[in-house]
Design the sequence.
């Protein structure tokens, strides 16, 4: 049976650095938003940090209560990043939104794969992309923020024995979004998801980028000299 994670994770006493804030004004906005989120959401665990960032991403603190963490997803994501394993996304917006600094994992989009399969089977391009990427999914990080069909296809692949290091699944909508996330949570793999029909690209990107931030802070604390 799947069990939701409930353990202390990596936190920092000061406001976490936003790798995407490239100017002083952007940094000030990021820090002020995070300080507000810390007071509302809490700041005890790494999962709290993801709840903070996802709430900021959608401008709604109710998002914090919708996030679900199963099978220690943060350590699994950090391990995959430390080995430079791929981050595979469902759509272009997710691919573009994921931070490219602070790690050496390639970020690729399923839409670049499986176009012929989508036509021949009459299935969505995103689900065809993940089917075509099957051999690259093991130990990768999968980030699905938009397409329930992609998450359903991925869950089928996982049920056949292919295990990503981490799946962030937050597809949004009224057709199969809730069902696909419930199916993800039934699998014994590290995952981050949202309850119900809410979610979307901003939530998936925020969760992934916070894991990258935690990973990067850990590298800096260790004085790592790895190329990123």
Sequence:
């Amino acid at each position: 049976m799947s069990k939701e994670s409930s353990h202390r994770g990596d936190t920092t006493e000061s406001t976490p650095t936003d790798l995407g804030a490239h100017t002083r004004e952007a940094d000030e906005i990021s820090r002020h938003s995070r300080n507000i989120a810390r007071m509302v959401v809490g700041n005890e665990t790494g999962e709290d940090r993801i709840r903070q960032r996802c709430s900021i991403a959608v401008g709604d603190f109710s998002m914090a209560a919708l996030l679900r963490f199963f099978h220690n997803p943060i350590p699994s994501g950090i391990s995959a990043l430390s080995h430079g394993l791929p981050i595979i996304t469902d759509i272009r917006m997710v691919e573009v939104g994921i931070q490219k600094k602070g790690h050496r994992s390639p970020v690729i989009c399923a839409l670049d794969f499986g176009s012929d399969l989508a036509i021949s089977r009459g299935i969505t391009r995103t689900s065809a992309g993940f089917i075509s990427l099957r051999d690259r999914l093991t130990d990768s990080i999968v980030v699905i923020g938009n397409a329930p069909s992609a998450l359903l296809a991925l869950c089928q692949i996982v049920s056949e024995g292919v295990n990503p290091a981490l799946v962030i699944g937050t597809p949004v909508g009224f057709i199969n979004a809730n069902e696909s996330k419930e199916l993800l949570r039934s699998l014994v793999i590290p995952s981050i998801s949202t309850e119900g029909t809410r979610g979307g690209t901003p939530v998936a990107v925020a969760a992934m980028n916070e894991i990258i931030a935690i990973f990067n802070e850990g590298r800096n604390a260790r004085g790592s000299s790895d190329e990123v």
Remarks:
- Residues 65-222 form a domain with the Rossmann fold fold (CATH 3.40.50.10230).
- The chain is about 45% helix and 10% strand.
- Residues 201-222 form the longest helix (22 residues).
- The longest strand covers residues 67-70.
